[in-house]
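worker-03 picked up job from queue 'complexes'. Input manifest follows; two sequence lines, order preserved.
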Amino acid sequence: MSDAMPCKRLLMKRDLDLWESSETRAHLVHFIEQLADAVRGRENEQYDLPISASVEALMGLLQQVRGVIERHPVAKKDAPASRFGKVEFRDFYDELRAESASLITGAFPQLTQNQVRQLQTYLEESWGDKRRIDYGSGHELNFMCFLYGLTAYKVFDLGGTDRANLVLKPFIEYLKIMRVLETEYWLEPAGSHGVWGLDDYHFLPFLFGAFQLSTHKHLKPLSIHNEEVVELFADKYLYFGCIHFINSVKTTATLRWHSPMLDDISGVKKWSKVAEGMVKMYQAEVLSKLPIMQHFYFSDFLLCPEGVSAPDNVDRDDDGCSTLEPHMGHATWGDCCGIKIPSAIAATESNRQTNRHKPLPFD
Amino acid sequence: MNLDHTLELLRQGKHIPEETVYSLCLELQELLINEANVSYVDTPVTICGDIHGQLHDLLTLFEKSGGVEKTRYIFLGDFVDRGFYSLESFLLLLCYKLRYPDRITLIRGNHETRQITKVYGFYDEVLRKYGNCNVWRYCCEVFDYLSLGAIINNKIFCVHGGLSPDVDTLDAIRGIDRKQEVPHEGPMCDLLWSDPDDVETWSLSPRGAGFLFGKNEVDKFLHGNDIELIARAHQLVMEGYKEMFDGGLVTVWSAPNYCYRCGNIAAVLEIDDQLQRNYTIFEAVQPQDGVGNAIIPTKKPQMDYFL
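worker-03 finished. Artifact:
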C-alpha cells in the first residue's frame, strides 16, 4: 500500500459483510482480546514492572495532549451557540492535528515517515469529531487502532510487560483525558441511543473493566447499584470508574432509569460472563454497525478487505460548514489511497447528480 | 380497543398488549391519511418540540399547558428514540389524536423513520419490552402518514427541522408524496433535518442530511408566503426556546434534562388569537423506582450476549 493515507472504505451493507469475515477484523478483535485477557484479575495500579521505554514514551505523548487541552480553555462567558458543545474543542483538535506527526516522531523516533503518516490519522481521530463536537465508541476505536498500529510496527511487544500495561497505563490515561475533554468541552455523545445505549461515550472500559473483575471473589455485577461500593472501587476498576462517572453526570435518577442496559447486565451472575458478553457485544454493537464503521480507517497495518467500495469522499475537510458554491474557494481536491477524490462539497454535488451512496446521517 | 383504558395504562407507563397497538396504529393510519401535508390549524394553539420518549415530562407538559381537554396542540415531531418510554409517549399522542382529532396535530420528525429508530433506541426499546419488533413495525407504518408541517392562521409555519432549497412555497410542500420512508435527500428530507444557523446562504449540514439556512433564506420564505414566523424544533436549546433572525424563527424544545444529562429546561409556545407568543417553561420530573417497572419484561434480548 506504500504511502497512501489511511482512508474510510465501509460505505454500505455489502462492505460491512466483507469486513465481518475479514482477517483484518479478526486480528483487531484478537488484539483487543489479548489486552483484555492481560488485565484479568488486576486492579488499575497493578501493572507489570519494568514499564517499557515505549509505554513511557506513549505516556509522555499523552501528557502533551493534556498540554494541548490546557492551551485551549473554554472562554468564561458563554457564547450563544445552538449546539451543546464548546467551540474551543475545534482549536484543540486543530492544534492536535497540526502536531500529531511530530508528537508521534518525538515519542517513537524509530518509526519511518510513512509509519508516522499511517498512525497519525488514528491519533487525530481518537478524541472526537471536530465539526460536531461529539465523541463516541468509534473515536475510542481509533485509539485502539493507534495502539494496534504501534504494536504492528514492533514499538510494543505483547510478549512482555506491555501486554497488560497497554491497558493499565496508556489506555487508562487516554480515558482520563477523554473525561477532561467530555466535561471541559461538553462533548455530545456521538449518535447517542439515549438510555438505550451502554454508555453515552465509551465501550472499552466496560469490556476491560469486566475482565479486571472476572476473578474477583466478592464483588458481583449487582454491586454497581451500591453507591458506597462504587465509590470505593471507582479508582481500582475501570467498570466501577465508569459507573461512578455516570452517577456523577446523571444525578436525577438511578441506573435503572437512565441506564437500563447496565441495569440488565448487573443481573448477570458472574463478572466472567459479563466479560465474555462484552466481547460479543462489542463485535456486534460497534464493529458491525455501519453508522460507526462507515468512519473506520484502513491503512497499511489495518488492510482493507478485497472487494469493498472504493473510497467515496473525504470528510476530513477543515472548512466546517462550507457553502455549496464550488467557486467559493472550498472545492479543493484531497488525496486518499493515492486516488484523487473530490472535496466534501464536490462529493455532495456528485452524489446528488449520480445518486451514489450517501453516508448515514448523524443525529 | 378501549381507548380510555389504554390511555390510563399509558399514563402509568404500563404494558400495552400487542393487539391493542396494532388496532390503534391501524385506526391512526385511516385518520392521518386524510390530513394534508401541511395541516391548517386555528389559534389559540400550543406548539411543542422534541419529546424523545420522556413520558413523565410529556405528562408534565400537558399538565402545565392546560391539557388536551382544553387546549389545541401541535407537536413538532421526534416523539421517539433515546428516552425510556418512546413507545408509550408515541401511543399516548396517538390515543389523544384519536380521541380529539381536531385538537392534536402531529408533525413528523427526523426520528420518525425506520432507519433512524433502528439506530437510536426505539427499536431496541420495543424489542426489550415485547421480545419482538412487531410493535415497532406498526408504529413505523404510522410514521409514514404523519404531516410534514402545519400552518397556523395562515401566518405561522410549523415544521420539525427547517427549510429546504427545493421548497419556496407552502404549495411546494403540499405537492410532496409524503407517505413513504423519509428519503435521504430532497425536500421531504430537508424539512425534517435542516437547521438555522449564522450562514449567508444554503450550506452543508454537519448532520449529513438537510441543510443549514440563515436569515436571508428565512426572510425570503416569510415574505414569499406572507407569514410571520417559522416554528421548529430539532435542536436542543438549554433555555427551552430560542428566537432567531429578528423573531422570524423560533426553536422550541420540550424534553427537559434531555437524556438525563443535559440539564436543560423545556418549553412550549402558546399562540393566542392575536398571534402573540407566550412561552411556558417546565423542568424535568424525577422518575422513581417502583413506578412503571411493571413494563420491564422478563424477555431481554440484549442479554443474549451475556448468557
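worker-03 released lock.
Chain A has two domains: 7-305, 310-363.
The first strand of chain A starts at residue 7 and ends at 8.
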